[in-house]
Amino acid sequence: MKQILFLLLSLLVFSCSKNPVPKPDNLLDEEVMVDIIYDVSILQATDGSMPHKLKEYNIEMDQYIFKKYKIDNITFRQNQRYYAADVRKSKRIYKRVIEKFEQEKSKISGDSNKKKDKDGKIIYEPVK
Questions:
Q1: Could you tell me if 36 and 76 are in contact, meaning their C-beta atoms sit under 8 angstroms apart?
Q2: In degrees, to the nearest 5, what angle opens at C-alpha 67 toward C-alphas 20 and 85?
Q3: What is the C-alpha separation between 82 and 86, in angstroms, rounded?
Q4: Which of 34, 38, 89, 122 has the greatest number of C-beta atoms within 10 Å?
C-alpha cells in the first residue's frame, strides 16, 4: 500500500513540473496566437450559424488559417499545446482575444454608452 501511495505521489510531483510541454521549434509569438485564435473563433461561429457562406466562398477553416499565417498543422498544434500547458500564458492570450472581440463589437455597434474601467476594460452602462 505504501508503495502505491509513493508511486502516486511521485507521479503527482513530476506531472506538476513548470511546463511539461516542450517549447516548439517554431514558437509563434503570443500576439500571433491571439490573432489565430480570434480568426478560428470567427470561422467556427460562421460555420455554426451560416455554414453555406464558407462553402459559397470555398473556405476550408484549417487551410485558411495555415495559409494566412504561413504555418502548417504541426506548428499550429505544437504551439496550441505549448500555450495551453502554461495557464498564465493561456489566460493572457484568451483575455486579449476577448478584448479584441469587444473592440470589434464597439466599432460595429458604435455604442455611445461604453466606458473604460481603471484597468482599461470596456464596460457598458445602461442607456437612459
A1: yes
A2: 15
A3: 7
A4: 34
pLDDT tens per residue across span 18-68: 557 899 999 999 999 999 999 999 999 999 999 899 999 999 999 999 999
93 CB-near residues (< 8 Å, 6+ apart): 30, 33, 34, 37, 83
All residues at 6 or more sequence positions from 81 whose CB lies less than 8 Å from its CB, including other chains: 21
What is the spatial distance between Cα 73 and Cα 128, in angstroms, rounded to a whole number?
A: 50
The C-alpha atoms of residue 22 and residue 19 are separated, in whole angstroms, by: 7
- pLDDT for 128 equals 44
- Locate 122 and state its grid cell: 470596456
Spatial distance between the Cα atoms of 32 and 28, rounded to a whole number of angstroms: 6
Residue 117 has pLDDT above 80, yes or no: no
Q: Is 116 helix (H, G, I), strand (E, B) or coil?
A: strand
Which pLDDT does position 10 carry in this prediction?
A: 61
Which burial class, exposed, middle or buried, applies to 13 when counting CB atoms under 10 A from its CB (0-12, 13-18, 19+)? exposed
C-alpha cell at 39: 480568426
